[in-house]
Specification:
- By secondary structure, the chain is of the alpha+beta class.
- It has one domain.
- Helices cover 22% and strands 40% of the residues.
- The strands form 3 sheets. A 5-stranded mixed beta sheet has the order 1-9-12-5-6. Strands 2-3-8-7 form a 4-stranded antiparallel beta sheet. A 3-stranded mixed beta sheet has the order 4-11-10, covered by helices on one side.
- Strand 2 and strand 3 form a beta hairpin.
- The chain starts with a strand and ends with a helix.
């Protein structure tokens, strides 16, 4: 099983009215480099979600990536996802639950403004390259698992990508030892 990775974009707003509140925003922004994710920078390319959105896959909308705090689900029609020119857009019909009401208040106050997505990368779904002294990972095709509303818009759980980076770009142990030796001479 491919481990799930999470990334964050900051674009979220509350819409609708008291009777039918909605949360809308972008969970991913295309062609916008991430912060350093532990030795590499990541860029989500346009079309990265196209295949997933055409399938029967059933992504969830969650609070803080917590599966017990479901805000919406694609198959229920309470989560709508589209790729637009900016990125992965979402619209969530917020349920009348205590957690969702509390979240709406926090979003309206501006205390919570982050949106994120969780994904796994199928074979061939990413491309790694070195540009100057930077390592870049481009996401070109992902399996979307969820979008989430988060109070801490930070990049989380990048261990899978970091392992891929180390396998491709980190020097072998012998080379590291030789480099350390040469640096001391």
């Amino acid at each position: 099983m491919t481990p799930i990775e999470r990334r964050t974009a900051i674009e979220l707003r509350a819409e609708g009215d008291k009777k039918s509140p909605r949360l809308v925003g972008h969970a991913a922004i295309f062609n916008s480099p991430s912060q350093d994710l532990g030795g590499f920078t990541e860029i989500v390319k346009p079309g990265a979600f196209t295949r997933t959105l055409k399938t029967e896959r059933d992504p969830l909308a969650l609070v803080q990536h917590m599966p017990q705090l479901v805000l919406g689900r694609r198959s229920a029609g309470t989560l709508r996802l589209t790729e637009d020119s900016k990125g992965l857009a979402f619209e969530i019909d917020v349920p009348d639950t205590t957690a969702a009401r509390d979240l709406l208040v926090s979003v309206e106050r501006g205390d919570v403004r982050g949106a994120s997505f969780a994904f796994s990368t199928p074979a061939g779904g990413d491309r790694w390259e070195v540009r100057g002294d930077k390592v870049i990972r481009e996401l070109i095709d992902v399996d979307l698992h969820e979008v989430t509303i988060t109070s801490q818009p930070a990049y989380l759980d990048t261990s899978v990508a970091r392992r891929s980076y180390e396998l491709k770009f980190a020097p072998a142990p012998r080379l590291r030892a030789l480099r350390r030796f040469l640096e001391t001479v």
